[in-house]
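Design request, tokens follow.
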């Protein structure tokens, strides 16, 4: 009989990752050799305080997955988010990415991403609550 429990250490997590990568490799050919190439950038103000950042990476199917893009409220609407995103996209292209993919909520930055050339390709309506949507966006790089 099988049991289900929380992972106890990194070896268990690595086993899961290794097995799904092995399966994926058996089904299709990798475009890039590395499983995950991190792209992590921060923006600092003149006081050296962090006022923004982007966290993501390029996977071996040449997709740039943007996990987080954040800009401090004091720096919004000044172009910093666009600069962070553009620099991250440029690095992703250098690493071999052909497509950028991200998720956002309708109350976060949908308009910002659309202005940056992203397009919607899916949504979950009324999540996290009624009147709000969880959005999937992409952009060819």
């Amino acid at each position: 009989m099988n049991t289900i429990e929380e992972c106890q250490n990194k070896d268990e997590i690595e086993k899961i990752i290794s097995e799904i990568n092995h399966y994926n490799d058996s089904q299709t050919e990798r475009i890039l050799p590395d499983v995950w190439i991190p792209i992590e950038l921060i923006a600092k103000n003149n006081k050296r305080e962090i006022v923004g950042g982007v966290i993501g990476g390029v996977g071996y199917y040449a997709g740039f997955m943007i996990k987080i893009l954040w800009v401090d409220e004091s720096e919004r609407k000044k172009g910093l988010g666009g600069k962070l995103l553009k620099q991250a996209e440029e690095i992703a292209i250098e690493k071999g990415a052909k497509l950028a993919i991200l998720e956002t909520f309708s109350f976060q930055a949908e308009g910002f991403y659309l202005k940056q050339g992203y397009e919607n390709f899916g949504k979950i309506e009324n999540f996290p609550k009624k009147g709000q949507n969880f959005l999937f966006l992409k952009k060819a790089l």
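Comment from the thread starter after seeing the answer: thanks! Residues 82 and 116 are 7 Å apart (CA to CA).
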